[in-house]
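re: ur question from earlier - yeah i can do the single chain one, its not a big deal. heres the input i used so u can compare w yours
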Amino acid sequence: MLWKTFKEKEFDHDQAANILKEEKERLVSVVLSDLKRHGWLTISLHPDDSRKRIYKLKTPEKAIEEIDAEK
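and the output i got, formated as tokens:
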């Protein structure tokens, strides 16, 4: 759902929660953390608020390429 909406565009936690239709912040954080751990997501600091993060999905081709390179 995130890829379908954002592709390679940046998004924040609130935008992800809206797309995933999830009210429980912790569950959205778990999903984003899992995506990062598996190499599908990059995270950077929000330019206006260092407490927040900006997320960006990798293309499926790029993520698979990186996974294959790790093996």
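The chain has a mean pLDDT of 89. not sure if urs matches, ping me
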